[in-house]
Amino acid sequence: MFTVILLAQPARVPVNEPAPSGNNKPNNTNNSNSGGNTTTTTNNNTSSSSSGELKKYSDSQGRFSIGYPEDWTFNDHPNNAIIKITSPSEGSNDKFFQNVNLQIEQLSSGTTIDDYVKTNVDAVKELVKNYREVSSMFFNRNGSRAFQIVYKGRYGDADYEIQVKQLFAVVNGKAYILTYVCKEDERDAFETTANKIFNSFKY
User: Who contacts 110 (Cβ-Cβ below 8 Å, separation ≥6)?
Assistant: First the structure.
């Protein structure tokens, strides 16, 4: 089974990662031992998803908060990202897990959202085979200028195409990149939920 996450600067390119462990509950204890596999999280505000509400995760460093459904797998220590939220299995034949992941990057002084978006989108166009842009726009979000793009294509040796939705924001010298990845040729049963996760994201 596969999930997809995007690599760090200069391009957010999809790659395969191991299937999720099935544990969707963040560890609520702080652990400064970087040599172990435990994670450092703070998750003081949660809400039940029985009524369709999202559980809330608040970053221990105060950089962001985000909501996620209780039946999705939450990982606050994935490879190549800050967090990853993975969709539940759709059955025994489900070989691909949709996922939302977040990256945060400290930027050099003076880097604008326009500069950052151009660098990353240009690099993705070079590395994603059969790249096709579905939509893109700049807009105001959380009081600052942001950029959203949706594109399709194939990465590496994968025999399938993916669709990627990304939100870019540059705030207080940091770049935030929130990404949703699904398989392009399959019905996306989780698109509505992914949009709710995106809408819940605050920085």
Answer: none
